[in-house]
């Protein structure tokens, strides 16, 4: 019997790239069809089912299964690298048959990435990621089609109705989006001149893997968007952003030609070079100091760092090295923390800071902390709340004046 | 896969004992839906199916027994095991905690009763009508069968029914699960049939299918084909240690020793840890052959166990004993014993290897701790360069210490009393014995408060050397370094198991060195001090590792009934010695 095995195996291996290159997606259906057509019952049922008396015909299926031997032609494959690639492809296909979470289609590039994964679990994770991506893409495609159909439908309906055409008087042309953009641009320019600085420290690219870096850039994009739409935006600084670093490339890739027109300051310098050290406060969840109020004359630094590896204390070490003041959000003071990391995403941070800047109200600001992380607000006792409010009033008044003064000095 | 946990709490043990469960998420989602959607909430009748394997039941029983045992131990604190003894952590966690088992939380529900005997197609049709759920019926039912280890015939009738509906085609997932049942019930002829089918139908399989086929084929005459399957696996990924283990066992079953050894070499070459059953198989096989070459290799395995700090299980220990005793002419005698506190084997009276590191190892560890735990590439993470300098000059200015105390850990050890009072109590008791003490703490301890009284801290400072780190620095790395720097006689007091610092070390070897050093030098306080005298968990004086002196072997092993956590070592030993000194 081993003769057949030796014969069959290389034979089967040779088949693979050929079939796949021809029509990857239809492999399974093709296989199915082939078996459907070969329904001829086979003779080689060597197992006697007579051993089970009064038994149902239990082994019949085996015969049909066995009879379906592949009858494809042979194609020559020589390259060894190709061979392992094809084998991996086949493995994925078999896993898919088994119902594992693997993608249906996989490109050469992805296959190469997969082969480079160091361990089995890394491979599995990467495949699951591809699977999720594929599923999301498919769902989106379907949604798109449904929408297009609905639009067509609506269009047709409108065509039928457009018999009654009447003149209407409008005050504005429909150019809202553009108007809004221009207005936001004006506000951004104002923030560039007089706004309070908010620094994103980009010195963490060495600590992050490519996927984490991509997440960080997404969060940065979102933060910038939130800032732009605010009544009183910050003047954003991207500090320590090295030209042609992974960060820079990714940002340019995402913003495209808009990158050079963004109303923010991107610099290779460190925040310590730009601002007086005493005015800087580094925000980090590891800080022992808790932020009590938002100060309008300080420069807050947020580390743009997505840390999925639990490298605790990295940003605190950074602040310690530069000898900067640090603070963390008073999450425990106001919220009944339940699960999850105290590290918030960059866009959540900027929304909290914007809210604090405009209202100074912690309850309001901490609404942007994800609801899944806490069960609710803690009752701050009435007396202390009164105190806080009083403090806030005086503080905001003071800082307002200070802030406006500072704005002028910053401009230089 | 987490779905299982919620739904099937009460039977995980059943299929923990199943060696392979790589059946994929399709099953898991199916079962999940059943937990949620099964409105009828009928109980799955486990009794009605074939009795689940006896091994699983045994496991349950032994589990219960260990549990009981643990509780008994709690009451008699006097016979305390050492801090790193097997099962000690579990016991500690039981103290104070409610010893109620949370294992039996959720019952299993299913809307379909598993058949116990083969059904014909009409009956299957009817059963399918009863079925409500999102997953496909066949998928669901066969994964239920694999879970309950139904008989092969029932599964076969299901496949026959599916095939009849599908023009004789059975899906790969059904086939694999059927194969699993066949392998589980050791139906070799069925395995071969399925193997033929798979070979005919698919060009290549995936890892789960290969694993099952290998495991099934090794018992048959066609076991050599399992080696071919192993080759197929290798094309895409490194085979698992179980794949290798199965192939080795197959080779040993069929008296092909050379193949077995070369597979073993390959397995070790891939940096996989061989399964202990495989190693046991080598010893079991060794009883029948009398070959010096083979016995040398077995001794190599024992050295492998030593170098990687692996401990055999109870049955493996029996196998080792039997093998040694079966060597003709050498007259080995084995017995199961324990080691006395002094480090002498109760069986033969020999002294077990000392726990102390060799000078080279000691220097190596010291440097590694300094470089990886304290510095770690960024001195600012755990401390600051200024503080590090201050600490180094402080340590160098003091005489070598006898005991280094983790001040905060000791102070918070007793819930009663002020923290500074606790610390003072420990320090003064130790100071009476004329020991050079070092108390490590943080600066906030010096600031007078309700917990830290100034006068008591003054007294502490009088009786011991003190070093106070910044409040945001970590004190444990300093503790480690101060102890290591003082020399081999120096011990340290903390209840912390220091696992996070161990994890900072770069490789497994250094971590083992650290653990060995920790076992020999860590003192853990057991009892309060105010009324009773300060007592410590005794430290080990001997190293728990497989060891030999040429004409004797001492092999620690894990008992089946005790759960050992990774930071503990076994307490039971196998003592082997030659009765008459042989010509070696």
Q: Strand tally of chain B, please? A: 10
Gross geometry of chain A: globular
Helical content of chain A stands at 40-55%
Largest interface here, residues on each chain? Answer: A-B, 54 and 55 residues
Low-confidence stretches of chain A: 1-55, 70-78, 396-412
Give me the side-by-side strand order of the main sheet of chain B: 4-3-2-5-6-7
Biggest pleated sheet of chain B: 6 strands, mixed
* Rg result of chain B: 30 Å
Poorly predicted runs of chain B: 1-78, 99-108
Q: Indicate the radius of gyration of chain A in whole angstroms.
A: 32 Å
Distance between the termini of chain B: 55 Å
> Into which percent range does the helicity of residues of chain B fall?
40-55%
Shape of chain B: elongated
Kindly estimate the percentage of residues of chain B that lie in beta strands according to DSSP.
5-15%
SSE pattern of chain A, N- to C-terminal:
HHHHHHHEHEHEHEEHEHEHHEH
Structural class computed from helices and strand pairing of chain A? alpha/beta
Work out the helix count of chain B.
26
Write the layout of secondary structure elements.
The complex is a heterodimer of chains A (412) and B (584).
Chain A: H1 2-22, H2 27-37, H3 60-67, H4 80-97, H5 108-116, H6 120-161, H7 176-194, E1 197-201, H8 210-229, E2 235-239, H9 246-255, E3 265-266, H10 271-274, E4 280-283, E5 299-303, H11 314-322, E6 325-327, H12 331-334, E7 335-337, H13 346-359, H14 362-365, E8 374-377, H15 382-411
Parallel strand pairs in A: 1-2, 1-5, 2-3, 4-5, 4-6
Antiparallel strand pairs in A: 7-8
Helix pairs in contact in A: 1-4, 8-9, 8-13
Chain B: H1 2-7, H2 12-16, H3 25-37, H4 54-75, H5 88-94, H6 121-130, H7 137-148, H8 152-165, H9 172-184, H10 188-201, H11 207-217, H12 224-236, H13 241-253, H14 257-269, H15 276-286, H16 292-307, H17 314-326, E1 332-338, H18 359-375, H19 379-382, H20 385-397, E2 403-406, H21 407-411, H22 419-431, E3 437-442, H23 454-463, E4 465-469, H24 476-486, E5 491-493, H25 499-504, H26 508-521, E6 522-525, E7 536-537, E8 547-548, E9 552-557, E10 572-578
Parallel strand pairs in B: 2-3, 2-5, 3-4, 5-6
Antiparallel strand pairs in B: 1-10, 6-7, 8-9, 9-10
């Amino acid at each position: 019997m081993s003769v057949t095995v030796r014969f069959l195996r290389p034979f089967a291996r040779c088949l693979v790239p050929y079939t796949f290159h021809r029509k990857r997606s239809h492999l399974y259906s093709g296989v199915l069809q082939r078996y459907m057509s070969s329904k001829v019952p086979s003779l080689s049922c060597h197992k006697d089912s007579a051993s089970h008396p009064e038994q149902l015909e239990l082994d019949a299926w085996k015969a049909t299964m066995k009879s379906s031997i592949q009858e494809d032609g042979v194609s020559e494959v020589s390259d060894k690298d190709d061979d392992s690639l094809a084998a991996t492809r086949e493995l994925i296909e078999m896993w898919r048959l088994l119902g594992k979470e693997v993608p249906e289609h996989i490109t050469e590039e992805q296959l190469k990435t997969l082969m480079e994964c160091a361990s089995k679990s890394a491979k599995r994770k990467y495949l699951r990621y591809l699977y999720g991506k594929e599923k999301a893409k498919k769902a989106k495609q379907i949604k798109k089609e449904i929408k297009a159909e609905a639009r067509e439908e609506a269009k047709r309906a409108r065509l039928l109705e457009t018999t009654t055409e009447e003149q209407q008087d409008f005050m504005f042309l429909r150019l809202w989006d553009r108007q809004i953009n221009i207005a936001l641009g004006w506000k951004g320019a104002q923030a560039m001149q007089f706004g309070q600085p908010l620094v994103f420290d980009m010195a963490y690219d060495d600590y992050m893997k490519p996927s984490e870096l991509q997440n960080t850039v997404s969060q940065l994009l979102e933060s910038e968007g939130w800032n732009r739409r605010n009544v009183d935006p910050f003047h954003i600084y991207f500090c320590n952003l090295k030209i042609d670093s992974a960060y820079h490339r990714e940002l340019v890739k995402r913003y495209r030609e808009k990158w050079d027109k963004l109303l923010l300051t991107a610099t290779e310098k460190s925040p310590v070079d730009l601002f007086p050290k005493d005015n800087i406060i580094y925000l980090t969840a590891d800080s022992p100091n808790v932020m009590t109020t938002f100060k309008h004359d300080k420069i807050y630094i947020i580390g743009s760092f997505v840390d999925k590896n639990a490298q605790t204390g990295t940003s605190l070490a950074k602040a310690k090295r530069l000898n900067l003041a640090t603070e963390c959000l008073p999450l425990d003071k106001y919220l009944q923390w339940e699960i999850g990391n105290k590290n918030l995403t960059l866009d959540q941070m900027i929304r909290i800071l914007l809210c604090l800047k405009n209202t100074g109200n912690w309850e309001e600001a901490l609404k942007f902390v994800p609801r899944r992380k806490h069960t609710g607000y803690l009752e701050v006792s009435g007396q202390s709340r009164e105190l806080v409010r009083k403090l806030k009033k005086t503080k905001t008044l003071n800082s307002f004046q200070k802030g406006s003064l500072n704005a002028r000095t910053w401009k230089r | 896969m987490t779905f299982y946990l919620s739904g099937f709490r009460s039977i995980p043990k059943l299929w923990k004992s199943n060696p392979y469960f790589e059946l994929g998420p399709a099953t898991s989602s199916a079962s999940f839906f059943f937990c949620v959607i099964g409105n009828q909430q009928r109980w799955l009748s486990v009794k009605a199916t074939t009795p689940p394997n006896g091994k699983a039941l045994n496991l349950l029983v032994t589990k219960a027994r260990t549990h009981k045992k643990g509780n008994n131990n709690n009451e008699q604190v006097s016979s305390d095991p050492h801090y790193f003894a097997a099962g000690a952590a579990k016991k500690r966690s039981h103290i104070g905690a409610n010893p109620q088992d949370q294992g039996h939380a959720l019952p299993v529900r299913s809307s379909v009763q598993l058949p116990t005997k083969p059904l014909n197609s009409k009956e299957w049709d009817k059963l399918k009508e009863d079925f409500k759920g999102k997953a496909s019926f066949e998928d669901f039912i066969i994964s239920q069968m694999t879970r309950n280890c139904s008989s092969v015939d029932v599964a076969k009738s299901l496949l026959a029914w599916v095939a009849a509906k599908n023009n004789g085609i059975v899906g790969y997932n059904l086939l694999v699960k059927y194969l699993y049942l066949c392998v589980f019930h050791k139906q070799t002829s069925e395995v071969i049939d399925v193997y033929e089918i798979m070979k005919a139908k698919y060009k290549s399989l995936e890892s789960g299918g290969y694993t099952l086929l290998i495991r099934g084929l090794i018992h048959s005459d066609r076991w050599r084909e399992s080696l071919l399957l192993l080759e197929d696996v290798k094309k895409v990924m490194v085979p698992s240690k179980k794949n290798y283990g199965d192939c080795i066992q197959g080779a040993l079953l069929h008296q092909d020793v050379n193949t077995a050894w070369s597979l073993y070499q390959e397995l070790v070459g891939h940096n996989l840890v061989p399964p202990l059953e495989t190693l046991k198989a080598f010893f079991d096989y060794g009883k029948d052959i009398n070959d010096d070459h083979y016995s040398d290799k077995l001794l190599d395995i024992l050295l492998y166990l030593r170098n990687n700090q692996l401990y055999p299980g109870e049955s493996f220990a029996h196998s080792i004993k039997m093998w040694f005793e079966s060597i003709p002419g050498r007259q080995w005698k084995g017995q199961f014993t324990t080691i006395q506190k002094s480090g002498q084997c109760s069986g033969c009276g020999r002294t077990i290897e000392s726990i102390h590191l060799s000078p080279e190892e000691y220097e190596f560890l010291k440097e590694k701790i300094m470089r990886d735990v304290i510095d770690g590439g960024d001195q600012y993470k755990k401390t600051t360069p200024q503080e590090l300098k201050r600490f180094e000059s402080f340590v160098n200015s003091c005489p070598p210490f006898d005991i280094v105390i983790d001040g905060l850990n000791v102070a918070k050890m007793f819930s009663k009393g002020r923290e500074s009072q606790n610390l003072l109590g420990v320090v003064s008791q130790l100071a009476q014995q004329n020991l050079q003490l070092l108390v490590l703490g943080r600066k906030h301890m010096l600031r007078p408060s309700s917990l830290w009284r100034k006068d008591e801290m003054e007294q502490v400072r009088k009786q011991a050397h003190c070093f106070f780190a910044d409040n945001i620095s970590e004190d444990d790395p300093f503790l480690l370094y101060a102890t290591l720097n003082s020399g081999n006689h120096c011990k340290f007091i903390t209840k912390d198991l220091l696992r996070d610092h161990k994890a900072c070390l770069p490789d497994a070897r250094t971590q083992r060195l650290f653990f060995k050093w920790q076992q020999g030098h860590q003192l853990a306080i057991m009892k309060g001090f105010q009324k009773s005298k300060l007592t410590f968990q005794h430290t080990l004086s001997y190293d728990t590792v497989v060891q030999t002196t040429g004409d004797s072997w001492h092999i620690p092993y894990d008992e089946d009934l005790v759960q050992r956590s990774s930071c503990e070592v076994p307490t039971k030993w196998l003592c082997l010695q030659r009765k008459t000194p042989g010509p070696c």
